[in-house]
Here is the input.
Amino acid sequence: MRDTQKRTYSMVITAMLMAVGMVLPFLTGQIQAIAKIISPLHIPVLICGLCCGWKWGLALGAVLPLLRGLIFGIPVFPTSALPMAFELAAYGLITGLMYAFLLKKSKKGNHLPLILCSLVTAMILGRFVGGAAKALFLALGIIGSKTPFTFAAFFTSYFVSTALGALIHIVVIPMVVLALEKAKLSPMVMH
Here is the structure.
């Protein structure tokens, strides 16, 4: 497949995932406790990185929380939306880079282990990026907080509170990506 076709497919899929990201949080009823557990904005960004590559995943991750925060007020702009933009941009970047690298190194066959490795790595590193961005924005006074952002607060907020959502992502996202690949709708594996 030509580069222009891959770019067009990637653009269309990214736009569709942007739309999904704008609407998906409404399924949680805008209840922040449920949204924090499920992390609905993470899903389309992780899928985008795995299907469309790092550039598209990075762009979607950076734009989605900011746009949704400005339009709908959730994630709260700038308090939650700014750090989340860095976290999600890291997800898109890392999943896209890792999956492309692993696909090149692997033999044809089952992509599930490659997807899982890329996904878990991105979810861990992206949480550190999000926490570092939040700490930086707090230190610069760009965002405020009623409670201090200690390492314990970071770990609880980014790992403990989101553990169930991470498990849901580890189950759901590979199924979606594999289905897109099987339907030949994933530019990352198109030939």
Remarks:
- The helical segments are 3-23, 32-38, 42-52, 54-72, 81-105, 112-140, 151-160, 163-182.
- The mean pLDDT is 91.
- The chain is about 75% helix and 0% strand.
